[in-house]
Amino acid sequence: MASIKDVAKHAGVAISTVSKVLNNYPNISEETRQKVNASIQELGFVPNAVAAALSSKHAGRIALLINLTDTAQTADEISLQYMLGALGKARELGLDVVTVFFSMLQGKTVDEMVNYFRSQSITGIIVCGLSKDDTTILKLVKKQIFKMVLIDVPIANENTSYVWINQAEAQYEVAKKTMELDTIPYTRILYIAGKDNGHVTPERLKGIQKFAKDYKMKLNIQKGYFSEKKAREITMEYGEKVDMIVCASDLMAIGAMRACMEMDIFRPVCGFDGITLMAYAGKQMNTVKQNFAHIAEEAVAEMNNLMSGKTGHGIVLDYEIVRMEYKDIVK
Amino acid sequence: MASIKDVAKHAGVAISTVSKVLNNYPNISEETRQKVNASIQELGFVPNAVAAALSSKHAGRIALLINLTDTAQTADEISLQYMLGALGKARELGLDVVTVFFSMLQGKTVDEMVNYFRSQSITGIIVCGLSKDDTTILKLVKKQIFKMVLIDVPIANENTSYVWINQAEAQYEVAKKTMELDTIPYTRILYIAGKDNGHVTPERLKGIQKFAKDYKMKLNIQKGYFSEKKAREITMEYGEKVDMIVCASDLMAIGAMRACMEMDIFRPVCGFDGITLMAYAGKQMNTVKQNFAHIAEEAVAEMNNLMSGKTGHGIVLDYEIVRMEYKDIVK
DNA sequence: CTGTTAGCGCGTTCAG
DNA sequence: CTGAACGCGCTAACAG
Lengths: 331, 331
Fold this sequence. Notes:
Two copies of one chain form a homodimer. The first copy, chain A, is of the alpha/beta class. Chain A has helices spanning 4-11, 15-22, 30-43, 49-55, 76-93, 110-119, 135-143, 167-179, 201-214, 228-238, 250-263, 292-307, 326-329, and strands spanning 61-66, 96-101, 124-128, 147-151, 160-165, 188-193, 218-223, 244-247, 269-270, 285-289, 315-317, 320-324.
């Protein structure tokens, strides 16, 4: 196992010189850089990330904090896509990532969390699925001890940044596209919202409210709590009295659609997220397709900026309005 | 940020004494042990995993290698459950885990993989979703450079071990339970197998073959490649001519069930794995429910054994035969 | 532009 | 049973 010392000996230079070449430091002559790189190649040397992390405090160990919502194992796709994007990008940027689930932090105080992350030499934290109920983690954000990038929670300052899509606009657009499928004018709309404690819920609500206003529609807002069953019950109760059902998540859209099918009525339903499960609803449905892997990639990139001393300014990414059905996914 | 040095000072002992307490070394008086533990509590000290990994070569940084099968985003639940179990148990045992997806290793040679893991100070690797096609990783196993624990691939020696369930027996049992739902004797059975390159496929096949033999049934074996669509096509072709359809995965069972519904025939169908999606098939179905999180926990525990110098002997875990339907999951 | 010298925080002999 | 001393592989001042 070749170490930096071996490379230095092989190239006939000092250890620190090798280190400087590795980290792209400025004051190195092109000649020695070549020489060192040649030795690195020859010995098949790969720098030891652990030692690097221990030595330089600034170095890039980051935690990927994932909130696995107990309500929906079927929405696991989202978490996994986050991870896929984040871990891939991190490796590309040479950052070491520790994956942490919310459940592993449960019951911990802010100080305990700080100790935990510090003990792991973690300096940056990316958070997926933060809700307003996670007060301890929100406190952690406010303390600004670590560089943090939040997904779907717009907070930005010197140590914090975020990545999300324009929720209000997306909610507006998917409703509009769904309405336009029909030529008959709609006048009544049922909106099944998420949880009050979600950061996206009020934004999406704004979107649908603007939509209802723009198109002069009567809006019935019900809380579905991102639950398939709740959405189903709401639809059973109000579905018949509206022209169209807009849901703040795919899972709820599935519940709503199932309710319609069971009542044997037809109402256009649309969802939000674009998970594969959507296709199992039984009928075609519109939804807002988010590219979660890409969102996570951008989050890591933004973390990299933050760690380089740049102030977070937040990143707004694109989405797509798509129409999904069973045959699309079964290949 | 309290370090081991602070703890030592606070407790009035040497650093090494604290270290010994932390690592449960024998020659420490109960009195000093108490004293040190008290200081640890008081200072909220958490050992720095990075420094520990650097210092002791044997120490526990392990990689969790996950194969995200491109075929089924909907089966993400399995991967995520593996991760949940593994990361939780690892934290409990004080092991540092690096999550790695197969896709990040694609195109790498064995030597490159070795370099990669070594550069991360990784000494143990847990592999989820290994197939016979992953020749490079199998070479890595044979080299025995790292301690490895394989899920569903029975290889055991000084540096390798595995965790799995009795595939043949489970396949037999789920078929039996499904048959017993009816009072009419069955004579023809359609088996939709997985991939030839899977390690579980031949085992499950053995199970169904024994079942067919024991109950004197005619067995039609078709390869479904774990594809929902393929299973659907197979069922379209052969479904009508059999009394019962046994599938080597839930996803294929869904495909088979959908085909039956479309052809408007009824045939009992059963699956394998117990993923939530199963409930979206449209009808009740039996399946083999595996506790993936627990499987992963055991894998980490076995890795811990391996790293302590114990020889791998493999671990066989339990499964459950369950009946799933939509209303079970919608809460 | 390059080499020397300290540590990072911890595990591990080996004297006492 | 305890503690001083050394080193893991690397980065980061500081000299030269």
